[in-house]
Amino acid sequence: MLKRAGWRIALCLALTAAACRQPPPLPPPAGVDAQHYDLTIRLDPAAQVFQARAVLDVRHPDTLTALPLAFEDLTIDSIRVNGVAVEAAREDDRLWAPVASGSRASRIEVAYRGWPRLGFYATERGGQQIVYTDSWPDEGRGWLPGLHHPADPATFALRLTLPRGYEAAASGSLHALDTLGAEVRYQWRLDVPAPLYTFAFAVADFSLTETTAGDTLPVRYYMLAEDSAYAHQLRRTPQALAFFSETLGPYAFDAYASVQVPMRFAGMENAAASFLLADLFPANRAEEVQIHELAHQWFGNRVPLAEWADLWLSEGTATYLTTLFYEHADGLDAARTRWIDMAALEARQATATALVIKEPRPPSAYLSWVPYDKGASVLHLLRRALGDDAFFAALRATYQRYAGQPLSTEAFQEILEAEAGQDLDAFFEYWVYGTDFPTLKTTWDPATRTLSWRITGDAGTLAGVPFDLQLRRRGRVHYADAEAGRVTLADWDDRPPRVRPVGVMMRVE
Ligand SMILES: [Zn+2]
Q1: How far apart are CA 138 and CA 131, in angstroms?
Q2: pTM beyond 0.90, yes or no
Protein backbone atom coordinates (compact mmCIF):
# COMPACT_ATOMS: atom_id res chain seq x y z
CA MET A 1 0.00 0.00 0.00
CA LEU A 2 1.14 3.52 -0.56
CA LYS A 3 -0.29 6.32 1.50
CA ARG A 4 -0.87 9.78 0.17
CA ALA A 5 1.85 12.03 1.55
CA GLY A 6 1.16 12.47 5.23
CA TRP A 7 -2.57 11.97 4.83
CA ARG A 8 -3.10 8.71 6.64
CA ILE A 9 -0.81 9.71 9.49
CA ALA A 10 -2.76 12.90 10.03
CA LEU A 11 -5.96 10.90 10.04
CA CYS A 12 -4.50 8.56 12.61
CA LEU A 13 -3.54 11.45 14.88
CA ALA A 14 -7.01 12.93 14.49
CA LEU A 15 -8.65 9.65 15.36
CA THR A 16 -6.82 8.98 18.59
CA ALA A 17 -10.14 8.16 20.21
CA ALA A 18 -11.12 5.48 17.73
CA ALA A 19 -9.04 3.69 15.12
CA CYS A 20 -5.62 4.40 16.57
CA ARG A 21 -6.48 3.30 20.09
CA GLN A 22 -8.15 0.13 18.93
CA PRO A 23 -6.31 -3.02 19.91
CA PRO A 24 -4.54 -4.69 16.99
CA PRO A 25 -6.56 -7.32 15.12
CA LEU A 26 -5.95 -10.68 16.75
CA PRO A 27 -4.13 -13.43 14.87
CA PRO A 28 -6.24 -16.56 14.26
CA PRO A 29 -6.25 -19.06 17.15
CA ALA A 30 -3.30 -21.49 17.12
CA GLY A 31 -3.62 -24.21 14.50
CA VAL A 32 -6.37 -22.42 12.56
CA ASP A 33 -5.74 -22.10 8.83
CA ALA A 34 -8.32 -20.64 6.46
CA GLN A 35 -8.07 -22.34 3.06
CA HIS A 36 -10.60 -20.69 0.79
CA TYR A 37 -13.27 -17.99 0.75
CA ASP A 38 -16.05 -18.37 -1.78
CA LEU A 39 -18.16 -15.23 -1.96
CA THR A 40 -21.36 -14.56 -3.87
CA ILE A 41 -22.66 -10.98 -3.95
CA ARG A 42 -25.70 -9.37 -5.54
CA LEU A 43 -25.02 -5.65 -5.71
CA ASP A 44 -27.15 -2.78 -6.98
CA PRO A 45 -25.28 0.49 -6.39
CA ALA A 46 -28.25 2.74 -7.27
CA ALA A 47 -30.70 0.95 -4.99
CA GLN A 48 -28.08 0.29 -2.28
CA VAL A 49 -28.71 -3.44 -2.34
CA PHE A 50 -25.96 -5.74 -1.06
CA GLN A 51 -26.78 -9.40 -0.45
CA ALA A 52 -24.04 -11.94 0.09
CA ARG A 53 -23.19 -15.52 0.90
CA ALA A 54 -19.69 -16.35 2.09
CA VAL A 55 -18.42 -19.91 2.32
CA LEU A 56 -15.23 -20.38 4.32
CA ASP A 57 -13.25 -23.63 4.28
CA VAL A 58 -11.02 -23.74 7.34
CA ARG A 59 -8.73 -26.23 8.99
CA HIS A 60 -8.52 -26.17 12.78
CA PRO A 61 -7.59 -28.29 15.81
CA ASP A 62 -10.27 -30.86 16.70
CA THR A 63 -10.48 -29.29 20.16
CA LEU A 64 -11.72 -25.96 18.78
CA THR A 65 -15.41 -25.22 19.43
CA ALA A 66 -15.91 -21.81 17.82
CA LEU A 67 -14.05 -19.60 15.39
CA PRO A 68 -13.83 -15.83 16.00
CA LEU A 69 -14.58 -14.38 12.56
CA ALA A 70 -14.12 -10.63 12.21
CA PHE A 71 -17.42 -9.25 10.92
CA GLU A 72 -19.27 -6.03 11.54
CA ASP A 73 -22.62 -4.30 11.07
CA LEU A 74 -24.40 -6.40 8.48
CA THR A 75 -27.52 -8.47 9.15
CA ILE A 76 -27.02 -12.22 9.19
CA ASP A 77 -29.78 -14.30 7.61
CA SER A 78 -28.33 -17.72 8.34
CA ILE A 79 -25.21 -19.61 9.33
CA ARG A 80 -24.48 -23.23 8.45
CA VAL A 81 -21.58 -25.40 9.49
CA ASN A 82 -21.01 -28.38 7.21
CA GLY A 83 -24.53 -27.86 5.88
CA VAL A 84 -26.25 -27.75 9.27
CA ALA A 85 -27.96 -24.55 10.46
CA VAL A 86 -26.40 -23.20 13.68
CA GLU A 87 -26.70 -20.21 15.97
CA ALA A 88 -23.70 -17.93 16.34
CA ALA A 89 -22.93 -15.33 18.99
CA ARG A 90 -22.00 -11.81 17.90
CA GLU A 91 -19.87 -9.68 20.13
CA ASP A 92 -18.70 -6.26 18.90
CA ASP A 93 -16.87 -6.96 15.65
CA ARG A 94 -16.65 -10.73 16.25
CA LEU A 95 -18.88 -13.48 15.01
CA TRP A 96 -18.29 -16.67 16.99
CA ALA A 97 -19.02 -19.36 14.42
CA PRO A 98 -19.30 -22.85 15.93
CA VAL A 99 -17.11 -25.41 14.15
CA ALA A 100 -17.66 -29.13 13.61
CA SER A 101 -16.71 -30.65 16.97
CA GLY A 102 -14.11 -33.41 16.92
CA SER A 103 -13.26 -32.50 13.35
CA ARG A 104 -10.16 -30.88 11.85
CA ALA A 105 -11.95 -28.98 9.11
CA SER A 106 -15.20 -27.05 8.75
CA ARG A 107 -17.15 -25.36 6.00
CA ILE A 108 -18.83 -22.27 7.41
CA GLU A 109 -21.52 -20.62 5.31
CA VAL A 110 -22.86 -17.19 6.22
CA ALA A 111 -25.72 -15.46 4.36
CA TYR A 112 -25.96 -11.73 5.09
CA ARG A 113 -27.16 -8.38 3.80
CA GLY A 114 -27.17 -4.65 4.47
CA TRP A 115 -25.22 -1.70 3.07
CA PRO A 116 -21.61 -2.11 4.29
CA ARG A 117 -20.01 0.94 5.88
CA LEU A 118 -16.52 -0.40 6.62
CA GLY A 119 -13.95 -1.25 3.93
CA PHE A 120 -16.64 -0.49 1.35
CA TYR A 121 -17.05 2.82 -0.50
CA ALA A 122 -19.84 4.14 -2.70
CA THR A 123 -19.18 7.44 -4.40
CA GLU A 124 -19.77 9.44 -7.56
CA ARG A 125 -17.37 10.88 -10.09
CA GLY A 126 -18.38 12.66 -13.28
CA GLY A 127 -21.99 11.52 -12.77
CA GLN A 128 -20.88 7.86 -12.59
CA GLN A 129 -21.56 5.71 -9.58
CA ILE A 130 -18.50 3.93 -8.26
CA VAL A 131 -18.43 1.22 -5.62
CA TYR A 132 -15.18 -0.30 -4.41
CA THR A 133 -13.69 -2.03 -1.41
CA ASP A 134 -10.48 -1.28 0.46
CA SER A 135 -9.87 -3.80 3.20
CA TRP A 136 -6.56 -2.68 4.68
CA PRO A 137 -5.69 -3.59 7.38
CA ASP A 138 -8.72 -5.61 8.56
CA GLU A 139 -11.57 -3.41 7.35
CA GLY A 140 -12.73 -6.19 5.05
CA ARG A 141 -14.66 -7.34 8.12
CA GLY A 142 -17.25 -4.79 7.00
CA TRP A 143 -18.19 -6.87 3.94
CA LEU A 144 -16.62 -10.33 4.37
CA PRO A 145 -16.69 -12.43 7.57
CA GLY A 146 -13.24 -13.94 7.96
CA LEU A 147 -9.87 -14.28 9.63
CA HIS A 148 -8.53 -10.85 8.74
CA HIS A 149 -4.89 -11.26 9.66
CA PRO A 150 -1.93 -11.17 7.24
CA ALA A 151 -0.52 -14.46 8.57
CA ASP A 152 -3.50 -16.46 7.28
CA PRO A 153 -3.62 -16.03 3.49
CA ALA A 154 -6.22 -17.94 1.50
CA THR A 155 -7.58 -18.43 -2.00
CA PHE A 156 -10.68 -16.53 -3.07
CA ALA A 157 -13.55 -16.86 -5.53
CA LEU A 158 -16.00 -14.04 -6.15
CA ARG A 159 -19.29 -14.16 -8.06
CA LEU A 160 -20.65 -10.64 -8.41
CA THR A 161 -24.05 -9.97 -9.95
CA LEU A 162 -24.79 -6.38 -11.03
CA PRO A 163 -27.39 -4.51 -13.05
CA ARG A 164 -26.31 -4.24 -16.70
CA GLY A 165 -24.32 -1.12 -17.50
CA TYR A 166 -21.66 -1.50 -14.80
CA GLU A 167 -18.15 -2.79 -15.40
CA ALA A 168 -16.30 -4.55 -12.60
CA ALA A 169 -12.76 -5.57 -11.64
CA ALA A 170 -11.59 -7.75 -8.74
CA SER A 171 -8.73 -9.63 -7.13
CA GLY A 172 -7.57 -12.69 -9.05
CA SER A 173 -8.46 -13.24 -12.68
CA LEU A 174 -11.76 -13.11 -14.52
CA HIS A 175 -13.06 -16.59 -15.37
CA ALA A 176 -16.57 -15.91 -16.62
CA LEU A 177 -18.87 -13.05 -17.54
CA ASP A 178 -22.51 -13.88 -18.20
CA THR A 179 -25.47 -11.73 -19.09
CA LEU A 180 -28.61 -12.87 -17.28
CA GLY A 181 -31.57 -10.76 -18.45
CA ALA A 182 -31.17 -7.32 -16.89
CA GLU A 183 -28.10 -8.41 -14.92
CA VAL A 184 -24.47 -9.34 -15.52
CA ARG A 185 -22.55 -11.89 -13.47
CA TYR A 186 -18.78 -11.73 -13.12
CA GLN A 187 -16.75 -14.63 -11.75
CA TRP A 188 -13.17 -14.20 -10.57
CA ARG A 189 -10.81 -16.70 -9.01
CA LEU A 190 -7.66 -16.16 -7.02
CA ASP A 191 -6.08 -19.61 -7.03
CA VAL A 192 -2.89 -18.64 -5.19
CA PRO A 193 -3.35 -17.68 -1.51
CA ALA A 194 -3.05 -14.02 -0.52
CA PRO A 195 -3.87 -12.03 2.64
CA LEU A 196 -7.51 -11.01 3.11
CA TYR A 197 -6.63 -7.30 3.00
CA THR A 198 -5.82 -7.87 -0.70
CA PHE A 199 -9.31 -9.24 -1.53
CA ALA A 200 -11.19 -6.47 -3.34
CA PHE A 201 -13.58 -5.50 -6.10
CA ALA A 202 -14.54 -2.28 -7.86
CA VAL A 203 -17.58 -1.35 -9.91
CA ALA A 204 -17.68 1.67 -12.24
CA ASP A 205 -17.89 2.77 -15.86
CA PHE A 206 -14.44 1.39 -16.64
CA SER A 207 -12.65 1.54 -19.94
CA LEU A 208 -10.49 -1.56 -20.37
CA THR A 209 -7.07 -1.82 -22.06
CA GLU A 210 -5.63 -5.31 -22.48
CA THR A 211 -2.04 -6.32 -23.14
CA THR A 212 0.30 -9.14 -22.11
CA ALA A 213 3.57 -9.55 -20.29
CA GLY A 214 6.09 -12.16 -21.44
CA ASP A 215 3.68 -13.08 -24.30
CA THR A 216 1.23 -15.00 -22.14
CA LEU A 217 0.37 -13.22 -18.86
CA PRO A 218 -2.80 -11.12 -19.34
CA VAL A 219 -2.32 -7.52 -18.14
CA ARG A 220 -5.40 -5.27 -17.92
CA TYR A 221 -5.81 -1.59 -17.13
CA TYR A 222 -9.25 -0.57 -15.83
CA MET A 223 -9.46 3.20 -16.23
CA LEU A 224 -12.44 5.38 -15.30
CA ALA A 225 -13.98 6.14 -18.70
CA GLU A 226 -13.21 9.90 -18.67
CA ASP A 227 -9.54 9.17 -17.84
CA SER A 228 -8.95 6.37 -20.35
CA ALA A 229 -6.38 8.46 -22.26
CA TYR A 230 -4.07 8.27 -19.21
CA ALA A 231 -3.64 4.49 -19.50
CA HIS A 232 -0.31 5.10 -21.25
CA GLN A 233 1.17 5.96 -17.82
CA LEU A 234 0.98 2.23 -17.07
CA ARG A 235 2.77 1.15 -20.26
CA ARG A 236 5.94 -0.05 -18.48
CA THR A 237 3.98 -2.52 -16.30
CA PRO A 238 4.97 -5.57 -18.45
CA GLN A 239 8.62 -4.45 -18.26
CA ALA A 240 8.37 -4.19 -14.46
CA LEU A 241 6.67 -7.62 -14.26
CA ALA A 242 9.56 -9.09 -16.25
CA PHE A 243 12.17 -7.30 -14.11
CA PHE A 244 10.70 -8.42 -10.76
CA SER A 245 10.20 -11.99 -12.06
CA GLU A 246 13.84 -12.11 -13.09
CA THR A 247 15.15 -10.48 -9.91
CA LEU A 248 12.98 -12.29 -7.33
CA GLY A 249 11.36 -15.33 -8.93
CA PRO A 250 8.30 -15.95 -11.12
CA TYR A 251 5.16 -13.82 -10.70
CA ALA A 252 2.74 -16.03 -8.77
CA PHE A 253 -0.69 -15.10 -10.11
CA ASP A 254 -2.23 -15.90 -13.51
CA ALA A 255 -3.08 -12.31 -14.52
CA TYR A 256 -2.35 -8.75 -13.43
CA ALA A 257 -4.64 -5.72 -13.47
CA SER A 258 -4.51 -2.07 -12.44
CA VAL A 259 -7.76 -0.46 -11.39
CA GLN A 260 -8.27 3.31 -11.19
CA VAL A 261 -10.48 4.25 -8.22
CA PRO A 262 -11.04 7.41 -6.12
CA MET A 263 -9.57 5.75 -3.03
CA ARG A 264 -8.15 6.96 0.32
CA PHE A 265 -4.59 5.70 -0.32
CA ALA A 266 -2.32 6.45 -3.29
CA GLY A 267 -2.41 2.76 -4.10
CA MET A 268 -3.38 -0.62 -2.68
CA GLU A 269 -1.79 -3.92 -3.67
CA ASN A 270 -4.97 -5.96 -4.05
CA ALA A 271 -4.06 -9.49 -5.13
CA ALA A 272 -3.28 -9.59 -8.86
CA ALA A 273 -5.30 -6.36 -9.24
CA SER A 274 -3.67 -3.27 -7.73
CA PHE A 275 -5.92 -0.29 -7.11
CA LEU A 276 -4.48 3.15 -7.95
CA LEU A 277 -5.77 6.51 -6.78
CA ALA A 278 -7.77 8.19 -9.58
CA ASP A 279 -6.15 11.62 -9.05
CA LEU A 280 -2.65 10.26 -9.73
CA PHE A 281 -3.39 10.04 -13.45
CA PRO A 282 -4.26 13.68 -14.29
CA ALA A 283 -1.16 14.61 -12.23
CA ASN A 284 0.99 12.16 -14.28
CA ARG A 285 2.10 10.39 -11.09
CA ALA A 286 0.67 6.90 -11.60
CA GLU A 287 3.76 4.98 -12.72
CA GLU A 288 5.78 5.00 -9.52
CA VAL A 289 2.75 3.98 -7.44
CA GLN A 290 1.97 1.24 -9.95
CA ILE A 291 5.51 -0.16 -9.65
CA HIS A 292 5.29 -0.07 -5.83
CA GLU A 293 1.96 -1.96 -5.77
CA LEU A 294 3.25 -4.43 -8.35
CA ALA A 295 6.30 -5.20 -6.17
CA HIS A 296 3.91 -6.09 -3.32
CA GLN A 297 2.60 -8.98 -5.41
CA TRP A 298 5.92 -10.63 -4.46
CA PHE A 299 6.44 -9.19 -0.95
CA GLY A 300 3.27 -8.72 1.09
CA ASN A 301 0.97 -10.80 -1.12
CA ARG A 302 2.79 -13.98 -2.18
CA VAL A 303 5.08 -13.73 0.84
CA PRO A 304 2.69 -12.65 3.62
CA LEU A 305 3.66 -10.97 6.89
CA ALA A 306 3.81 -12.94 10.12
CA GLU A 307 2.67 -9.91 12.11
CA TRP A 308 1.74 -6.27 11.55
CA ALA A 309 4.97 -5.43 13.40
CA ASP A 310 6.85 -6.87 10.39
CA LEU A 311 5.24 -4.33 8.03
CA TRP A 312 8.65 -3.08 6.83
CA LEU A 313 9.19 -6.45 5.12
CA SER A 314 6.27 -5.55 2.86
CA GLU A 315 6.40 -1.73 2.64
CA GLY A 316 10.17 -1.21 2.87
CA THR A 317 10.69 -3.98 0.32
CA ALA A 318 8.10 -2.57 -2.13
CA THR A 319 9.63 0.90 -1.74
CA TYR A 320 13.17 -0.37 -2.36
CA LEU A 321 12.17 -2.67 -5.23
CA THR A 322 10.58 0.34 -6.93
CA THR A 323 13.95 2.13 -6.90
CA LEU A 324 15.57 -1.02 -8.28
CA PHE A 325 13.16 -0.96 -11.22
CA TYR A 326 14.25 2.62 -11.97
CA GLU A 327 17.90 1.61 -11.63
CA HIS A 328 17.28 -1.18 -14.15
CA ALA A 329 15.05 0.77 -16.56
CA ASP A 330 16.39 4.33 -16.38
CA GLY A 331 19.92 4.00 -15.01
CA LEU A 332 21.89 4.73 -11.86
CA ASP A 333 21.03 8.43 -11.62
CA ALA A 334 17.27 7.70 -11.58
CA ALA A 335 17.84 5.31 -8.67
CA ARG A 336 20.32 7.53 -6.79
CA THR A 337 17.84 10.41 -6.67
CA ARG A 338 15.32 8.10 -5.07
CA TRP A 339 17.86 6.60 -2.62
CA ILE A 340 18.79 10.11 -1.47
CA ASP A 341 15.15 11.09 -0.97
CA MET A 342 14.19 7.92 0.87
CA ALA A 343 17.16 8.34 3.25
CA ALA A 344 16.59 12.05 3.94
CA LEU A 345 16.06 12.42 7.67
CA GLU A 346 15.62 16.18 7.85
CA ALA A 347 12.04 17.32 8.43
CA ARG A 348 11.00 13.80 9.29
CA GLN A 349 9.62 13.14 12.70
CA ALA A 350 8.26 10.02 14.25
CA THR A 351 7.63 9.08 17.83
CA ALA A 352 8.97 5.60 17.12
CA THR A 353 11.80 5.08 14.68
CA ALA A 354 12.46 1.37 15.26
CA LEU A 355 11.48 -0.73 12.24
CA VAL A 356 10.09 -3.45 14.48
CA ILE A 357 8.37 -2.57 17.73
CA LYS A 358 7.71 -5.53 19.96
CA GLU A 359 4.66 -4.35 21.89
CA PRO A 360 1.44 -4.80 19.90
CA ARG A 361 0.05 -1.69 18.20
CA PRO A 362 -2.84 -1.21 15.77
CA PRO A 363 -1.68 -1.54 12.14
CA SER A 364 -2.56 2.11 11.40
CA ALA A 365 0.04 3.17 13.98
CA TYR A 366 2.76 1.78 11.68
CA LEU A 367 1.82 4.07 8.79
CA SER A 368 4.70 6.51 8.98
CA TRP A 369 7.83 6.95 6.85
CA VAL A 370 9.55 4.41 9.10
CA PRO A 371 8.48 1.06 7.53
CA TYR A 372 8.52 2.61 4.04
CA ASP A 373 11.61 4.82 3.84
CA LYS A 374 13.71 3.62 6.75
CA GLY A 375 12.77 0.07 5.69
CA ALA A 376 13.94 0.76 2.12
CA SER A 377 17.15 2.44 3.24
CA VAL A 378 17.98 -0.46 5.58
CA LEU A 379 17.55 -2.83 2.63
CA HIS A 380 19.85 -0.62 0.56
CA LEU A 381 22.41 -0.68 3.36
CA LEU A 382 22.14 -4.48 3.57
CA ARG A 383 22.76 -4.65 -0.17
CA ARG A 384 25.88 -2.50 0.26
CA ALA A 385 27.07 -4.45 3.31
CA LEU A 386 26.51 -7.94 1.87
CA GLY A 387 27.25 -7.23 -1.79
CA ASP A 388 24.83 -7.68 -4.68
CA ASP A 389 25.31 -11.45 -5.03
CA ALA A 390 24.44 -12.35 -1.43
CA PHE A 391 21.73 -9.69 -1.10
CA PHE A 392 19.79 -10.72 -4.21
CA ALA A 393 20.29 -14.42 -3.44
CA ALA A 394 18.68 -13.72 -0.05
CA LEU A 395 15.70 -11.96 -1.65
CA ARG A 396 15.21 -14.88 -4.04
CA ALA A 397 15.57 -17.44 -1.24
CA THR A 398 13.03 -15.54 0.88
CA TYR A 399 10.54 -15.44 -2.00
CA GLN A 400 10.98 -19.14 -2.68
CA ARG A 401 10.84 -20.37 0.91
CA TYR A 402 8.15 -18.07 2.26
CA ALA A 403 5.69 -18.16 -0.65
CA GLY A 404 2.41 -18.65 1.20
CA GLN A 405 4.25 -18.85 4.55
CA PRO A 406 4.19 -15.90 6.98
CA LEU A 407 7.56 -14.15 7.01
CA SER A 408 8.94 -12.69 10.23
CA THR A 409 11.85 -10.29 10.65
CA GLU A 410 13.76 -13.03 12.49
CA ALA A 411 13.36 -15.46 9.58
CA PHE A 412 14.47 -12.79 7.10
CA GLN A 413 17.58 -12.13 9.18
CA GLU A 414 18.39 -15.86 9.17
CA ILE A 415 18.20 -16.03 5.38
CA LEU A 416 20.41 -12.96 4.99
CA GLU A 417 22.96 -14.41 7.42
CA ALA A 418 23.00 -17.76 5.61
CA GLU A 419 23.52 -16.13 2.19
CA ALA A 420 26.16 -13.70 3.46
CA GLY A 421 27.92 -16.12 5.79
CA GLN A 422 28.01 -13.49 8.53
CA ASP A 423 26.28 -12.71 11.79
CA LEU A 424 23.93 -9.74 11.49
CA ASP A 425 22.81 -9.43 15.14
CA ALA A 426 24.60 -6.12 15.68
CA PHE A 427 23.27 -4.75 12.38
CA PHE A 428 19.66 -5.72 13.19
CA GLU A 429 19.97 -4.50 16.79
CA TYR A 430 20.98 -1.05 15.55
CA TRP A 431 19.06 -0.59 12.28
CA VAL A 432 15.95 -2.74 12.75
CA TYR A 433 15.18 -2.80 16.48
CA GLY A 434 17.06 0.39 17.38
CA THR A 435 15.92 4.01 17.29
CA ASP A 436 19.25 5.80 16.72
CA PHE A 437 20.78 7.16 13.55
CA PRO A 438 24.43 7.96 12.85
CA THR A 439 25.59 11.56 12.60
CA LEU A 440 27.53 12.89 9.62
CA LYS A 441 29.52 15.98 10.60
CA THR A 442 31.10 17.95 7.78
CA THR A 443 33.74 20.70 7.73
CA TRP A 444 34.39 22.93 4.72
CA ASP A 445 37.68 24.68 4.06
CA PRO A 446 36.91 27.45 1.55
CA ALA A 447 40.59 28.17 0.89
CA THR A 448 41.35 24.69 -0.47
CA ARG A 449 37.75 23.78 -1.43
CA THR A 450 38.11 20.71 0.72
CA LEU A 451 35.20 19.02 2.42
CA SER A 452 36.01 16.65 5.25
CA TRP A 453 33.58 14.59 7.27
CA ARG A 454 33.21 12.14 10.08
CA ILE A 455 30.45 9.64 10.77
CA THR A 456 29.79 8.79 14.41
CA GLY A 457 27.18 6.94 16.44
CA ASP A 458 26.75 4.03 14.02
CA ALA A 459 27.75 1.38 16.59
CA GLY A 460 30.30 0.08 14.09
CA THR A 461 27.61 -1.02 11.62
CA LEU A 462 28.97 1.13 8.77
CA ALA A 463 32.58 -0.04 9.03
CA GLY A 464 33.75 -1.30 5.65
CA VAL A 465 30.34 -0.71 4.03
CA PRO A 466 30.77 1.10 0.70
CA PHE A 467 28.29 3.91 0.07
CA ASP A 468 28.37 7.40 -1.43
CA LEU A 469 27.74 10.95 -0.35
CA GLN A 470 26.26 13.32 -2.86
CA LEU A 471 27.81 16.81 -2.90
CA ARG A 472 25.84 19.41 -4.77
CA ARG A 473 26.41 23.11 -5.40
CA ARG A 474 24.99 25.35 -8.14
CA GLY A 475 24.00 22.54 -10.47
CA ARG A 476 27.28 20.68 -10.01
CA VAL A 477 27.16 17.21 -8.51
CA HIS A 478 29.93 15.01 -7.17
CA TYR A 479 29.67 11.58 -5.58
CA ALA A 480 32.28 10.84 -2.93
CA ASP A 481 33.08 7.51 -1.29
CA ALA A 482 31.88 7.93 2.31
CA GLU A 483 34.91 6.03 3.62
CA ALA A 484 37.37 8.52 2.09
CA GLY A 485 36.60 11.13 4.78
CA ARG A 486 37.55 14.09 2.56
CA VAL A 487 37.42 15.38 -0.98
CA THR A 488 38.85 18.44 -2.70
CA LEU A 489 36.65 20.14 -5.29
CA ALA A 490 39.37 22.34 -6.74
CA ASP A 491 37.32 24.11 -9.41
CA TRP A 492 34.14 24.62 -7.33
CA ASP A 493 33.39 28.00 -5.71
CA ASP A 494 34.25 28.72 -2.09
CA ARG A 495 30.80 28.08 -0.61
CA PRO A 496 30.14 24.70 1.06
CA PRO A 497 28.28 22.12 -1.03
CA ARG A 498 25.09 20.47 0.18
CA VAL A 499 25.90 16.96 1.44
CA ARG A 500 23.38 14.12 1.30
CA PRO A 501 24.06 10.42 1.99
CA VAL A 502 23.01 8.11 -0.85
CA GLY A 503 20.53 5.64 0.62
CA VAL A 504 21.85 5.57 4.20
CA MET A 505 19.83 7.35 6.89
CA MET A 506 21.85 9.68 9.09
CA ARG A 507 21.68 13.13 10.59
CA VAL A 508 23.74 15.59 8.59
CA GLU A 509 25.40 18.43 10.53
ZN1 LIG B 1 2.91 -0.45 -0.11
Answers
A1: 18
A2: yes
